[in-house]
Recover the amino acids of this structure.
């Protein structure tokens, strides 16, 4: 179920109405069941993976704070994935063609049954270690198991194909018949959130969930399950543990965010996508103005898409009284690459900063070591977005930008410019750099990249008649977004129009509704769902 | 200070009130212009916009993507009014370059006042063509040119399903039940997008179910049903014209391909039907017979669509047939214009 499909408003309204009517523990169960239902609407089989992560991290979290859980709990929780897949298989047999349930391969049940077989001995072993060693052991187990799941499901195809191609290029025989692994939706996000859970508890930055159902609801919370924001235990979990009272602010802020998010996705991103899909299709004849138009369109498509998703997630959570982190802060007004990464997908960039860059030495090391760390982090951040060379290239490109801004003094000074003109120049140059980065990100293969670059050699000029009208289309869809951002610039987290008088807000809401219904039929999936 | 209930805020109440007011205005002021948007071509009058000055404007509306044209509702005295109905083949790339437009130019060149309405819409099969015909017959045509093709039945069927779905209760259609939203949507998709985006981009927005169409066309029983539907609906269309005394010129579609280096043109299988329908008031022009001797690659843009030279050959063939059959000497043509079409 996606936020922009028709069932979602009904789903959200039902959950919200029930949520406020229930006591605290009832709310956990409601969130858990609704979140699992939300996730299962894509593919119920992958719930087994989410259950595995949940079981491992719950017991690791409790283990880190030295609390041993009874064996019957450990056995029951780790058996859940196999039980779930077994139930799905039974439904397959009893009711073939059951809507929304694909065939479950019986071998998958066997694989899921390995979880207790691996976890129970490891759990027993860890409790024999000294408390300090045990804590590290639980953190390591959580991190390794999450990375293993992520690595296998996200990168298996990529590495096996790359190895095959490499061997082929070297003239060696590379014929093997490996299965194609399907990428489970949301895996990149919830595995990162699970890792941060264990590490933050070990660092004393949060307390683990006491109840299994609470932790399961925390990890699977449907508004942010699919594409973040990636939350931290210290800020996020306490919101589940407290019984909040209904307030009209929840409704107001929630609806405002939902409306802004829909506007960004449906009006801005989906309409920019029309141009992007055209320009980045290798069959489309391109000239320079079209190539530029495509790059600008993609910049606003991906921003509208992802920040729109985040607003929808935050708005949905707000209706349930829960506040999610803001992921964006006017990223295209960044004055340099460091500034950009403090404004773009902030929960991911701070995740990489806190769990990779700083542990590697951060800014405390020599400049060459700092730069090496930066490259490691950015390449991995690129690869996190997808198992493809273009994402690695994009990560490398941003690492190069960060390096240049650190080692070339004029660029560093430009990023720190205090004059108005200097600020504009810095923002314009960073936007141009960002555009080029998005081209690398968008081109899935060398053919597309070559096609886009080739356009620049085919003449034409900006303002070319053929690209003029589509440029107007782009302006028509981007200008309202920029206007909205300008009007809300005082809000640090892009929360819409919090300072406006209510009549102005009312007019703005009506205008947003009209803008988005005019574009309502283009049914496009969120870009970040594929990551 | 205006108080608001605990389940709402003043800003949202204001937004709701504004939208409600706008909806009422839309229902009072724009009802006719949004009618048919979600009938997907099955609305009886969509695309025909009559204005108080006595004119009818052919517009892109309600799934009817007519080329923009404007005519007087009453046929001008002494003018032959010819209506061309069909799909993208007779529609051509513009009103003037399509065979209907070229026929009008030929007629006018020899001093015969004639207007030819291009009422063709891409993807229209026999049923939707007939819906257009029912409305078009209100404009006193002197002649109807009916282009017969049997490759659009899948789309007719799909669009019928969509229009029936829209008429149902499904929540996904609730937004567009609003006339205000429908008007905005129409303005955006049919006017702003049409003006600012090139055809190659607009085409990507269309329903992309080529695979389903191919699969359906491989289904022999379905193909037989469609074939039969084309025949029965065409007979009905001919009957409608006949009731009103409007002569008909049938045009049967042909396609061409290259097989083993040899160019081959073939009839779409409707020649027999057309032949069976011909009589004193109904004539028939075969694309196959008209184009078979020509240089096919220079006449066809693809397997079935014609380039302007192909349309030109067709227009000449239509004129020859009109001359030979004296279709317009009889019935509505002669009676209303008081002059002969032929030399």
């Amino acid at each position: 179920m996606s936020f922009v499909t028709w069932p979602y408003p009904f789903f959200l309204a039902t959950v919200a109405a029930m949520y406020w009517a229930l006591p605290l523990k009832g709310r956990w169960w409601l969130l858990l069941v609704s979140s699992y239902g939300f996730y299962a609407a894509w593919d119920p089989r992958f719930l087994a993976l989410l259950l595995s992560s949940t079981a491992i991290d719950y017991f690791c979290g409790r283990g880190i704070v030295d609390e041993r859980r009874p064996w019957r709990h450990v056995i029951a929780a780790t058996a859940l994935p196999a039980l779930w897949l077994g139930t799905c298989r039974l439904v397959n047999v009893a009711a073939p063609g059951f809507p929304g349930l694909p065939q479950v391969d019986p071998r998958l049940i066997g694989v899921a049954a390995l979880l207790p077989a691996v976890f129970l001995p490891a759990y027993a072993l860890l409790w024999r270690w000294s408390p300090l060693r045990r804590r590290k052991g639980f953190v390591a187990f959580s991190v390794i198991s999450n990375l293993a799941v992520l690595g296998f499901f996200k990168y298996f195809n990529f590495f096996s194909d790359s190895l095959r191609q490499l061997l082929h290029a070297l003239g060696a025989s590379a014929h093997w018949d490996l299965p194609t692994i399907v990428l489970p939706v949301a895996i990149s996000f919830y595995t990162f959130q699970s890792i941060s859970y264990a590490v933050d508890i070990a660092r004393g930055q949060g307390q683990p969930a006491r109840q299994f159902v609470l932790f399961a609801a925390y990890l699977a919370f449907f508004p942010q399950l699919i594409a973040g924001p990636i939350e931290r235990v210290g800020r996020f979990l306490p919101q589940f543990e407290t019984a909040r009272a209904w307030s009209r602010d929840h409704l107001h802020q929630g609806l405002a965010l939902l409306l802004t998010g829909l506007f960004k996705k449906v009006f801005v991103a989906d309409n920019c996508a029309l141009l992007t899909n055209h320009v980045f299709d290798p069959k489309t004849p391109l000239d320079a103005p079209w190539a530029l138009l495509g790059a600008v369109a993609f910049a606003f498509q991906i921003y509208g898409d992802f920040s729109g998703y985040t607003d929808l997630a935050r708005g949905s959570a707000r209706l349930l009284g829960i506040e999610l982190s803001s992921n964006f802060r006017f990223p295209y007004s960044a004055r340099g690459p460091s500034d950009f990464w403090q404004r773009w997908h902030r929960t991911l960039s701070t995740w990489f900063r806190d769990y990779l860059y700083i542990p590697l030495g951060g800014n405390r090391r020599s400049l060459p070591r700092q730069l090496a760390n930066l490259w490691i982090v950015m390449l991995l951040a690129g690869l996190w977005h997808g198992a493809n060379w273009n994402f690695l290239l994009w990560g490398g490109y941003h690492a190069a930008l960060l390096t240049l801004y650190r080692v070339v003094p004029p660029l560093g000074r430009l990023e720190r410019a205090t004059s108005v003109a200097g600020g504009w120049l810095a923002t314009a140059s960073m936007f141009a750099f960002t555009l080029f980065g998005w081209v690398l990100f968008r081109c899935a293969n060398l053919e597309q990249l070559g096609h886009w670059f080739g356009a620049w050699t085919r003449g034409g000029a900006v303002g070319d008649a053929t690209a003029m009208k589509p440029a107007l289309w782009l302006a028509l869809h981007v200008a309202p977004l920029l206007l909205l951002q300008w009007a809300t610039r005082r809000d640090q987290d892009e929360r819409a129009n919090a300072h406006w008088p209510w009549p102005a807000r009312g007019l703005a809401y009506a205008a947003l509704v009209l803008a988005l219904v005019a574009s309502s039929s283009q049914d496009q999936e969120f870009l970040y769902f594929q990551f | 200070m205006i108080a608001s209930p605990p389940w709402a805020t003043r800003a949202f109440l204001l937004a709701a009130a504004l939208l409600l007011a706008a909806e009422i205005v839309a229902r009072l002021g724009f009802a006719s212009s949004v009618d048919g948007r979600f009938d997907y071509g099955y609305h009886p009058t969509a695309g025909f916009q009559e204005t108080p000055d006595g004119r009818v404007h052919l517009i892109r509306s309600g799934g009817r993507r007519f080329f923009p044209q404007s005519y007087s509702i009453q046929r001008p005295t002494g003018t032959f009014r010819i209506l061309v109905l069909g799909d993208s083949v007779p529609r051509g790339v513009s009103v003037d370059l399509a065979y209907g437009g070229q026929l009008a130019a030929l007629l006018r060149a020899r001093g015969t006042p004639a207007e030819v309405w291009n009422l063709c819409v891409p993807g229209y099969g026999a049923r939707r063509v007939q819906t257009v015909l029912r409305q078009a017959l209100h404009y006193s045509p002197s002649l109807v040119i009916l282009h017969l093709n049997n490759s659009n039945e899948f789309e007719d069927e799909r669009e019928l399903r969509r229009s029936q779905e829209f008429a149902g209760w499904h929540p996904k259609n609730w937004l567009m039940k609003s006339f205000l939203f429908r008007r905005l949507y129409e303005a955006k998709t049919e006017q702003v997008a049409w003006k600012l985006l090139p055809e190659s981009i607009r085409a990507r927005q269309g329903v992309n179910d080529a695979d389903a169409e191919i699969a359906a066309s491989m289904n022999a029983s379905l193909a037989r049903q469609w074939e039969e539907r084309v025949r029965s609906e065409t007979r009905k269309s001919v009957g409608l014209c006949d009731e009103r005394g409007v002569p008909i010129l049938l045009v049967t579609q042909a396609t061409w391909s290259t097989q083993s280096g040899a160019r081959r043109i073939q009839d779409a299988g409707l020649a027999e039907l057309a032949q069976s329908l011909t009589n004193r008031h109904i004539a028939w022009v075969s694309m196959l017979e008209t184009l078979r001797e020509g240089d096919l690659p220079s006449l066809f843009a693809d397997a079935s669509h014609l380039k302007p030279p192909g349309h030109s050959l067709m227009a000449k063939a239509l004129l020859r047939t009109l001359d030979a059959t004296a279709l317009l000497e009889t019935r509505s043509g002669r009676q209303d214009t008081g002059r002969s079409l032929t030399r």
About this structure: Residues 227 and 293 of chain B are 28 Å apart (CA to CA).
